[in-house]
C-alpha cells in the first residue's frame, strides 16, 4: 500500500517533469530572472494614472504577447492537421489596413472592426478551400497567400501607411490595444479569453479530437466517418480570423498600419510558439495552453533583447539561440537521458548474459 | 535442368527478429535460365527471404553461395556486385531523369569531356532494343511513361549491370492483362539469355503460366521445392496454407447454417456493384443474422468488395439497396449513417488513430456520425467505453492509454468495439484475425458468431479458409477481381471445396 | 449570345494588340519608338509616404522632361530584384539608369557592366558604396538630400534644447542600411559631449515596433531621467511618441525625427513630436535636369545636394495650412 502511494507520487513528479508546460514555465522564469539580473526594477509594477492601468516591463511584455497569442492559437490548430499557415503575418497587415482605411473613410468603428475580422476570415477560407478541396500543399498555398496578402494590404491603402490616430470615435479600437481591464492590459485579457474560448470549443466539443485525428492519420479518420476536408477548411478559416484579431491589436496599438512592417515575420514567431508549446510539426496531438505559454515566451524573448540592450545586428542570433535551448530542453532524448542510459546498460548486461 | 550448376544456393537461412524467427532454415536454389517462384501466404517469409538475398537483412545462420562463391552480404551493394538485381513493386528509379539515364545510371559512356550523353543514350537504346523495347526513346523523361513501362525499363537496367539473378517482387500487381503479357515476353527473353529469375506473385494463373519451379514457404519454414508442371493447384494451395489436400477435405466442424425464410428481405442487396480496375461487377445479398464469408487469395478482390460496400472507394457501377431502399453509399460517413461499418485489414494505416487514446478510438466513429458539435455526454461516453472494453475484453483495461501502445490483437478488439458502438446492422470485418495471437483470434471469432446470433449481418473476409468455412453461412468465392461462385455452406462444404473452386475456375481478364 | 461572342473577340484582340505593343517597347533599344530617350529607374517601390512621394515625383518630372521612364520597383527591400532590374536595363541598352538602392553594397558587378556598356548611372536618395574603380566610373552623379546633414540637424536641436546636457535614446533603422549609418554619423559629428545616449535600439522603421521598444527603454532607464528620443525616421518617432504618452511623459521627453511626412508634421503641431527634419523627397526636376544635361554633353556635378527644411510646431502648422505638401 505504502509502495503504491510512493509510486503514485513518483508518477506525478515524473509527469510534471515530462510535461512540456513545465519546461516552458521554467524557461519563462529563467528569462525573467535573466532580465531582473540586468535591470533590478524589471519586476517592479507601478500604477499609471494616465492610462488607468499597471505599468512596468512585464506589463508591456504582456501587451505585446496578445498578438502572438492570437496567431499561435490559430497556428496550433493548423499545425495539428500536419499543415502550416505562413500567411498569418500578411493577414494581420490586410486586416489592419482594412480597419485603418475604413476608419479614415468615416466608417463606424465597430463596423470597421467587423470588416477587418471578416476579411481575415475570408483569406483563411481561401487558404482552406485551396488546401482542402483542391488538395494543394499547405506550405505553397499559404506562402503564396503571404505574398499576395501583402500586396492586397498595399492595394487597400494605395501603398500608404494609413494613419487613423486622428480619427474621432475610434476609441473602442484604441482601447482594445492600449486600454486596461482591472489594471491588466485589455488586449492581453481579450486574447486570453479568446484562447480559452477556442480551447473550450476544441475540448468540450469533438472538434479537438477530430483535428488531431486528421493530423495523425487522415485516411483512418475518413474511415471513421470524419470528413477530413471539412476539418482542414475549418482550421485555416479559424487561423485567418485569429490573425485578423492579431492584426487589429498590432495596428490599433499605434492606430496606424504599416503595409510592409505590420505582421512581418510573425508567422515564424507563431510557428516557434507552437513548437515550443509541444505540438509536433508532423501534426497530431496539440496543446493550446502550451502554445499560449510559448507565445508569451516569444514576447518575453523580445523583451529580453531590449532589456539586455543586445545589439540590433545580433538580435536574430540571440532569438535563435534561446529557442534552440528551449527545444533541446524539451527533446525527449534529453528528458529521457537517464532512462535511456539505464536501458542501454540493461541491454548490454543482457547481451553479455546471452553471449555467455 | 537439374544437371546444370546452380547460380544461387541458399541453405539453412535463418533470420531472427527480437522474439520471432522470421526465417527458420530455409533453402532456395536458383538455376540459370529458369523462372522460379517463391510461394507462400502473407507472413510466410517470402519478402524476408528476398531481403536476405539482396543484402537488406543480414542472415543469422545459413549460407549463401552465388556462382560458386560463398557470400557474406553486408548491404545491398554487396548483393548487387555479386550480380543480383531487384525490381520492386514500387519501381525504384529516378523519375526526374530520362529513360536512357536511368538505364545507364552509373554506367554512362565517357568521352574526353566527361559523360558523352549521345553515346550513353545510344547504348541505352541498344539495351532497350535487346528487350524488344526499341519503341521507347531513351530521351523521354521516365515520369512520362506508364508504371508498367517503368518496370520494363528497370529490367533493362538490370541487364546493363550484367545481373545473373533478377528478382521481381509482385511486378504484376498494378498491371493490366496486356501489360502482364508484355512483361512475360520480356521475362522469357531475359530467362533465355541465361539469367535466373526469382518471381513473386499472388496470381496463381500467372505462376502457372510463367514459372518453371516453385519453392513453398510457410510460417518462415521451408516446405518443399517442386516443378510447377508436376504440381496441381489444390496441392500447391494446400502446401501454402498448411493442410494436405486430404486433410483439408476432412475439416468441417461448423454450426448450423442460418436458413433464409422465403420472402425475407435482405439487409443489403447489391446488383452489379463494381469499380474499374478494382473489382468486376458483383451481385450480392446479405440477410439479418447471416455471416457471409469472402474467400479468395490476396489480390482476388475480397478487400476491394468490402471497401465498395462501405463506400471507402466509390463504386462506378451497380445498384445498392439497403432494407429495400435504394441508397448511394459514396463515403464512409454515409455508410455509418446507414448503419454499415467496416473494419479494415490495414489496421495500422486505415484503422487505429495511433496517438489518440483507446477511449477516443472507441468513441470517434459514433461521434463522427453524430456530428462534431454534438459531443457525446460524458456519462454516456463512459458507459460506451466501459461496455465495449469489457465486451471485447481489451487488455490492459486502461482507456486512457494511446492505442498504439497496445498489442495487435487488442488494437483489433478496440477497433471492433469502435464499430459496434455505432450499432451497425451490417458489419464488414476484413482480416480481423490477421497477425494476432491465437487467444485473441478465438475471442474475435466468438464475437462474430455472437453478433450474428443477435441479428447483425456480418461480412467476414479472411485469407484463412478454415476460419471462413467454420464461421460463414454463405461463402462468396473471388478470384482475380471476379466473384466466381457463391457457396451455400452446409456439411458438404469444406476448405477443399473452395480450393477446388478457385483452382478449377478460369477467369477471363 | 452573339453580342457576348463579339465582346470576347474584341477584348481578345485588344489584349493581343496591347501585348504586341508591350513587346515592341521592351525590345526597343536606345531610342524609343517616338525617339524619346529611355531611362531605367531601379526603384524601391511602396515603402512609406516618403518613398511614394519621391518616386511619383521622379516619374512625373521625367515625363514632363520628355523622357521614356521605365519604372521597376522591388518588393520588401529585396536587393536581388533590384540587381535583376538593373542588369535588364543594361541589356536593353537604355540611355541612362537611375538607381535608388535598398542597400549600399553589392553593386560593383552590375555597375561594371553598365560602365562597359557606357550607360551613365545616377544614384538618387541613397548612395552606394563602390570598391571597384571600373564600377565607380559608371556613376555620374548622386542626387538627393544629405542624410548626414539630417543627422547633424537632429544633434544640433538636442544640443540647443539641453545646454546643460541630457540623457536619451536613439531609434535606428534596420542594421546595415546606408541611411542608418549616415544619419548616425551626422548625429555623432555634431552631438555635444554632455548629451548622453543611454541606448540605441533598432525599431526596424516601424511605428508599432518603435512603440514597444521605446516603452521598454523608458522602463529600463526610468532612473536616468531620459529627456529625448532621436528617431531616425518619422514612423518610429510616431511610435515613440505614443509610448511616451502612455507612460505619462508627454512633453517631458522630446522626440526628434527625420523625413517630414504630413503625419509627422501634424504630430508636431499636436505636440507629440518636438522637431522634424525634412528629408526632401521632391527632387525629380533636379534629377531629370542632371540626366538631360549629361546626355546633352554638359558637365554635371558629382554630388547634387537637395535642400531640406527643418520644422518646429509653428512652421509645421504653416506648411500644413498652405496645403502644399505632397506627402
UniProtKB/TrEMBL annotation, chain A:
Q: Name a GO CC annotation attached to this entry.
A: plasma membrane
Pfam families, alphabetized: BPD_transp_2
Keywords tagged on the record: Cell membrane, Membrane, Transmembrane, Transmembrane helix
* TM ranges: 21-48, 68-97, 109-136, 180-202, 231-250, 270-301, 313-331
Q: Does the keyword Transmembrane helix apply?
A: yes
Alphabetized GO MF terms: transmembrane transporter activity
Subcellular location, in the record's words? Cell membrane
Report the superkingdom from the record.
Answer: Bacteria
Main subcellular localization, coarse class? membrane
Identify its membrane topology class.
Multi-pass membrane protein
Q: Return the InterPro entries for the record.
A: ABC_transp_permease (IPR001851)
Q: What is this protein called?
A: Ribose/xylose/arabinose/galactoside ABC transporter permease
Question: What organism, scientifically named, is this protein from?
Answer: Bifidobacterium callitrichos DSM 23973
TrEMBL record, chain B:
For this UniProt record, give its keywords in alphabetical order, as a comma-separated list: ATP-binding, Cell membrane, Coiled coil, Hydrolase, Membrane, Nucleotide-binding, Repeat, Translocase, Transport
Its Gene Ontology cellular component terms are: plasma membrane
Compartment(s): Cell membrane
Q: Which SMART domains match?
A: AAA (SM00382)
Chain segments annotated as coiled-coil in the UniProt record: 461-488
Keyword Membrane attributed: yes
InterPro entries, per database record: AAA+_ATPase, ABC_carbohydrate_import_ATPase, ABC_transporter-like_ATP-bd, ABC_transporter-like_CS, P-loop_NTPase
Pfam families in the cross-refs? ABC_tran (PF00005)
**Record-listed E.C. numbers:** 3.6.3.17
Q: What class of enzyme is it?
A: hydrolase
Instruction: Provide the topology term for how it sits in the membrane.
Output: Peripheral membrane protein
Q: Name one GO molecular function term.
A: ATP binding
Q: What is its main location?
A: membrane
Q: Which Gene3D superfamilies match?
A: P-loop containing nucleotide triphosphate hydrolases (3.40.50.300)
Q: Where is the ABC transporter domain?
A: 8-244, 262-505
Q: Which PANTHER family match?
A: CARBOHYDRATE TRANSPORT ATP-BINDING PROTEIN MG119-RELATED (PTHR43790), GALACTOFURANOSE TRANSPORTER ATP-BINDING PROTEIN YTFR (PTHR43790:SF9)
- Please state what the protein is called: ABC transporter ATP-binding protein
From TrEMBL, chain C:
**Could you tell me which InterPro entries the record lists for this protein?**
Peripla_BP_I, SBP_2_dom
Q: Which GO terms describe its molecular function?
A: carbohydrate binding
| Record-linked SUPFAM superfamilies | Periplasmic binding protein-like I (SSF53822)
Pfam families xref list: Peripla_BP_4
Protein location = Cell envelope
One cellular-component annotation, GO: cell envelope
Signal sequence interval, chain numbering = 1-21
Q: Which family does it belong to?
A: Belongs to the bacterial solute-binding protein 2 family.
State the name under which the record lists this protein. Sugar ABC transporter substrate-binding protein
For the keyword Signal, the answer is yes
Which residues belong to any copy of the Periplasmic binding protein domain?
40-299
Q: Which Gene3D superfamilies match?
A: 3.40.50.2300
> Superkingdom, according to UniProt?
Bacteria
What species is given as this protein's source?
Answer: Bifidobacterium callitrichos
Keywords associated with the record: Signal
Amino acid at each position: 500500500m505504502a509502495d503504491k502511494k510512493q509510486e503514485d507520487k513518483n508518477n506525478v513528479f515524473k509527469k510534471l517533469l515530462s510535461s512540456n508546460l513545465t519546461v516552458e514555465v521554467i524557461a519563462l522564469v529563467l528569462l525573467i530572472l535573466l532580465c531582473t539580473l540586468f535591470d533590478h526594477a524589471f519586476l517592479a509594477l507601478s500604477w499609471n494614472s494616465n492610462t488607468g492601468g499597471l505599468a512596468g516591463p512585464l506589463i508591456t511584455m504582456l501587451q505585446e504577447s496578445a498578438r502572438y497569442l492570437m496567431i499561435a492559437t490559430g497556428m496550433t490548430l493548423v499545425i495539428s492537421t500536419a499543415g502550416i499557415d505562413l500567411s498569418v503575418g500578411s493577414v494581420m497587415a490586410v486586416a489592419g489596413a482594412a480597419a485603418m482605411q475604413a476608419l479614415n473613410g468615416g466608417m463606424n468603428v465597430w463596423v470597421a472592426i467587423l470588416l477587418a475580422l471578416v476579411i481575415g476570415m475570408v483569406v483563411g477560407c481561401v487558404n482552406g478551400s485551396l488546401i482542402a478541396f483542391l488538395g494543394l500543399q499547405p506550405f505553397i498555398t499559404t506562402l503564396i497567400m503571404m505574398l499576395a496578402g501583402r500586396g492586397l494590404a498595399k492595394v487597400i491603402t494605395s501603398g500608404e501607411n494609413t494613419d487613423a490616430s486622428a480619427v474621432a470615435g475610434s476609441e473602442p479600437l484604441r482601447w482594445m490595444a492600449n486600454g486596461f481591464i482591472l489594471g491588466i492590459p485589455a488586449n492581453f485579457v481579450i486574447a486570453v479569453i479568446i484562447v480559452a474560448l477556442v480551447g473550450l470549443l476544441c475540448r468540450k466539443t469533438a472538434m479537438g479530437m477530430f483535428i488531431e485525428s486528421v493530423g495523425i492519420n487522415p485516411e483512418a479518420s475518413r474511415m471513421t466517418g470524419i470528413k477530413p476536408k471539412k476539418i482542414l477548411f475549418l482550421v485555416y478559416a479559424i487561423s485567418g480570423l485569429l490573425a485578423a484579431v492579431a492584426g487589429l491589436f498590432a495596428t490599433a496599438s499605434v492606430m496606424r498600419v504599416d503595409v510592409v512592417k505590420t505582421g512581418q515575420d510573425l508567422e515564424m514567431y507563431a510557428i516557434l510558439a507552437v513548437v515550443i508549446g509541444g505540438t509536433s510539426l508532423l501534426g497530431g496531438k496539440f496543446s493550446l495552453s502550451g502554445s499560449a505559454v510559448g507565445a508569451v515566451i516569444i514576447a518575453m524573448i523580445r523583451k529580453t533583447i531590449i532589456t539586455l540592450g543586445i545589439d540590433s545586428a545580433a538580435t536574430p542570433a540571440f532569438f535563435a539561440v534561446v529557442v534552440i535551448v528551449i527545444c533541446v530542453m524539451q527533446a525527449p532524448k534529453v528528458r529521457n537521458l537517464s532512462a535511456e542510459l539505464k536501458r542501454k546498460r540493461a541491454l548490454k548486461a543482457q547481451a553479455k548474459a546471452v553471449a555467455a | 535442368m537439374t544437371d546444370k550448376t546452380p547460380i544461387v544456393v541458399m541453405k539453412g537461412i535463418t533470420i531472427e527478429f527480437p522474439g520471432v524467427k522470421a526465417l527458420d532454415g530455409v533453402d532456395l536454389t536458383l538455376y540459370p535460365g529458369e523462372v522460379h517462384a517463391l510461394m507462400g501466404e502473407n507472413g510466410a517469409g517470402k519478402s524476408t527471404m528476398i531481403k536476405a538475398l539482396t543484402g537488406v537483412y543480414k542472415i543469422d545462420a545459413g549460407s549463401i553461395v552465388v556462382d560458386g562463391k560463398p557470400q557474406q552480404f553486408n548491404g545491398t551493394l554487396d548483393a548487387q556486385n555479386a550480380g543480383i538485381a531487384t525490381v520492386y513493386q514500387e519501381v525504384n528509379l529516378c523519375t526526374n531523369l530520362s529513360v536512357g539515364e536511368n538505364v545507364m545510371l552509373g554506367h554512362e559512356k565517357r568521352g574526353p569531356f566527361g559523360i558523352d550523353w549521345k553515346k550513353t543514350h545510344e547504348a541505352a537504346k541498344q539495351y532497350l532494343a535487346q528487350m524488344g523495347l526499341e519503341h521507347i526513346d531513351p530521351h523521354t523523361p521516365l515520369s512520362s511513361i506508364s508504371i508498367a513501362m517503368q518496370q520494363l525499363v528497370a529490367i533493362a537496367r538490370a541487364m546493363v549491370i550484367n545481373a545473373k539473378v533478377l528478382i521481381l517482387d509482385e511486378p504484376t500487381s498494378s498491371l493490366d492483362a496486356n501489360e502482364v503479357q508484355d512483361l512475360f515476353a520480356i521475362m522469357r527473353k531475359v530467362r533465355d539469355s541465361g539469367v535466373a529469375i526469382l518471381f513473386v506473385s499472388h496470381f496463381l494463373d500467372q505462376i502457372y503460366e510463367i514459372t518453371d519451379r516453385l519453392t513453398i514457404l510457410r510460417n518462415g519454414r521451408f516446405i518443399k521445392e517442386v516443378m510447377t508442371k508436376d504440381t496441381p493447384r489444390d496441392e500447391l494451395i494446400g502446401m501454402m496454407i498448411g493442410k494436405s489436400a486430404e486433410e483439408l477435405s476432412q475439416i468441417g466442424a461448423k454450426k448450423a447454417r442460418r436458413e433464409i425464410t422465403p420472402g425475407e428481405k435482405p439487409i443489403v442487396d447489391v446488383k452489379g456493384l463494381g469499380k474499374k480496375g478494382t473489382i468486376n461487377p458483383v451481385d450480392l445479398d446479405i440477410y439479418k443474422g447471416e455471416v457471409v464469408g469472402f474467400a479468395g487469395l490476396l489480390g482476388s478482390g475480397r478487400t476491394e468488395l468490402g471497401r465498395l460496400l462501405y463506400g471507402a472507394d466509390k463504386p462506378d457501377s451497380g445498384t445498392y439497396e439497403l432494407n429495400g431502399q435504394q441508397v448511394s453509399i459514396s463515403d464512409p460517413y454515409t455508410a455509418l449513417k446507414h448503419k454499415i461499418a467496416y473494419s479494415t485489414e490495414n489496421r495500422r494505416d486505415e484503422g487505429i488513430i495511433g496517438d489518440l487514446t483507446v477511449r477516443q478510438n472507441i468513441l470517434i466513429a459514433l461521434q463522427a456520425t453524430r456530428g462534431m458539435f454534438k459531443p457525446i455526454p460524458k456519462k454516456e461516453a463512459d458507459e460506451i467505453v466501459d461496455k465495449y472494453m469489457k465486451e471485447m475484453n481489451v487488455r490492459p483495461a486502461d482507456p486512457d492509454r494511446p492505442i498504439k501502445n497496445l498489442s495487435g490483437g487488442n488494437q483489433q478488439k478496440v477497433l471492433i468495439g469502435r464499430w459496434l458502438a455505432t450499432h451497425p446492422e451490417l458489419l464488414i470485418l476484413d482480416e480481423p484475425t490477421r497477425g494476432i495471437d491465437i487467444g485473441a483470434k478465438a475471442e474475435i471469432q466468438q464475437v462474430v458468431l455472437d453478433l450474428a446470433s443477435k441479428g447483425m449481418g456480418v461480412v467476414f473476409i479472411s485469407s484463412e479458409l478454415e476460419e471462413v468455412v467454420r464461421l460463414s453461412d454463405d461463402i462468396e468465392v473471388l478470384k482475380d477481381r471476379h466473384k466466381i461462385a457463391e457457396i451455400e455452406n452446409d456439411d458438404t462444404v469444406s476448405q477443399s471445396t473452395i480450393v477446388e473452386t478457385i483452382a478449377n475456375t478460369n477467369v477471363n481478364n | 449570345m452573339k453580342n457576348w461572342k463579339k465582346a470576347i473577340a474584341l477584348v481578345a484582340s485588344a489584349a493581343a494588340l496591347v501585348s504586341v505593343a508591350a513587346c515592341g517597347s521592351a525590345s526597343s533599344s536606345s531610342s524609343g519608338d517616338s525617339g524619346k530617350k529611355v531611362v531605367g529607374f531601379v526603384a524601391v517601390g511602396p515603402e512609406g509616404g516618403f518613398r511614394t512621394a519621391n518616386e511619383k515625383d521622379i516619374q512625373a518630372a521625367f515625363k514632363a522632361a520628355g523622357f521614356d521612364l521605365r519604372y521597376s520597383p522591388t518588393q520588401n527591400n529585396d536587393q536581388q530584384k533590384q540587381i535583376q532590374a538593373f542588369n535588364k536595363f543594361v541589356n536593353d541598352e537604355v540611355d541612362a539608369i537611375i538607381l535608388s538602392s535598398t542597400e549600399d553594397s553589392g553593386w560593383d558587378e552590375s555597375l561594371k557592366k553598365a560602365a562597359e556598356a557606357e550607360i551613365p548611372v545616377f544614384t538618387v536618395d541613397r548612395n552606394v558604396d563602390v570598391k571597384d574603380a571600373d564600377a565607380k566610373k559608371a556613376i555620374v552623379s548622386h542626387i538627393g538630400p544629405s542624410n548626414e546633414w539630417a543627422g547633424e540637424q537632429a544633434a544640433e536641436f538636442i544640443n540647443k534644447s539641453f545646454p546643460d546636457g541630457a540623457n536619451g535614446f536613439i531609434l535606428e533603422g534596420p542594421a546595415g542600411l546606408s541611411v542608418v549609418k549616415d544619419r548616425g554619423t551626422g548625429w555623432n559629428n555634431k552631438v555635444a559631449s554632455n548629451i548622453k545616449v543611454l541606448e540605441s535600439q533598432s525599431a526596424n522603421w516601424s511605428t508599432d515596433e518603435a512603440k514597444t521598444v521605446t516603452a521598454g527603454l523608458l522602463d529600463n532607464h526610468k532612473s536616468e531621467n531620459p529627456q529625448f528620443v532621436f528617431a531616425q525616421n518619422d514612423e518610429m518617432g510616431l511610435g515613440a511618441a505614443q509610448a511616451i504618452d502612455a507612460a505619462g511623459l508627454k512633453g517631458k521627453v522630446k522626440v526628434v525625427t527625420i523625413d517630414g511626412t504630413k503625419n509627422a508634421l501634424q504630430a508636431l503641431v499636436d505636440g507629440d513630436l518636438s522637431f522634424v527634419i525634412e528629408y526632401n523627397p521632391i527632387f525629380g526636376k533636379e534629377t531629370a535636369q542632371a540626366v538631360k544635361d549629361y546626355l546633352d554633353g554638359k558637365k554635371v556635378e558629382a554630388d547634387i545636394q537637395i535642400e531640406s527644411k527643418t520644422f518646429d510646431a509653428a512652421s509645421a502648422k504653416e506648411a500644413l495650412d498652405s496645403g502644399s505638401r505632397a506627402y
